[in-house]
Hints:
By secondary structure, the protein is α/β, with parallel strands linked by helices. It is 31% helix and 25% strand. The protein has helices at 19-29, 100-119, 134-146, 159-167, 178-184, 225-230, 238-241, 246-253, 291-306, and strands at residues 7-9, 36-44, 47-56, 60-68, 80-87, 94-98, 126-130, 151-155, 172-174, 187-190, 209-212, 232-235, 262-264, 283-286. The strands form 2 sheets. It has an 8-stranded parallel beta sheet with strand order 9-8-7-10-11-14-12-13, with helices on both faces. It is globular, with a radius of gyration of 19 Å.
Amino acid sequence: MTQTPFQIIGPDAEAKLDWLKLGAALEAGHMLPRAEISDSFLYRGKDTLLNRAAWIDELGLLVKSATIFPENAAQNLPAVNGGAALYSDKNGLLEALVDFHLLTKYKTAGDSLFAAMKLARPESKTILIVGAGTVGRSLRAAYGAGFPEARFLIWNRNKSRAEALARDFSNTDVAESLADAVQQADIVTCATMVTEPILQGEWLKAGQHIDLIGAYRPDMREADDAALKKARIFVDSRATTIEHIGELKRPIATGVITADDVVADYYDIASGTFARGNDTEITLFKNGGGAHLDLMTAAYIRDAVKG
């Protein structure tokens, strides 16, 4: 018996993708039966091998492997690499090999934009991106689609990288002071690889939306205890964040917050609880990723390519 031909979806598929349509696909995916997911991590010093798998009835199966080597930047190489395979839910056959960087770009930034469209004030006019790496660039594109009238600020410890990113987009400026920029922003989105908090709760103001992306290991977090205590906390998935990522795991372990302080995840959208309560509260979203979101994104990419 011969294998049914499968698609190889490369970076050129990006021309057919749309950030807002991806958001609709993520919402639809969370109306399907709850995903079965499995994550495994292997570590060597600062380096990480992350294997993620997901299965959603009526949608499909996906296995994604990511290698995260932070020191690659010194060699002008991407810090995150890997591969992804999408399988049919009907018969388990391989349907597509999806370009890892394309999938990761749209899953990561699309996840954050989707949450912001639910939690941020629609009239948000100033968006601060903390971190000017690959994810920061993706966030500028994604948030620009969701908030086309917004002004953007970029802050990065290496100012030249922030300047390089800002040059590639209109209506985008470099922030000199992180504290001052946070106090100007309606939305703050962080995509760094810090292990100790860079975002201070004392800087936050009423009505903001905070989007935390960078932390993915138990020893990493971007926001301090004060920020968590001032905000209503949301996550994309309780299963992939609370016990796995330092952003929540560490403050829960020390009693600063409890797991019950997480108001909702995406599976609560249908109940109406994944939503901003009023214009003055601070909403804080932890983007934990998860293979189920990779699966939903890969299925969206597959369908967009097919037309």
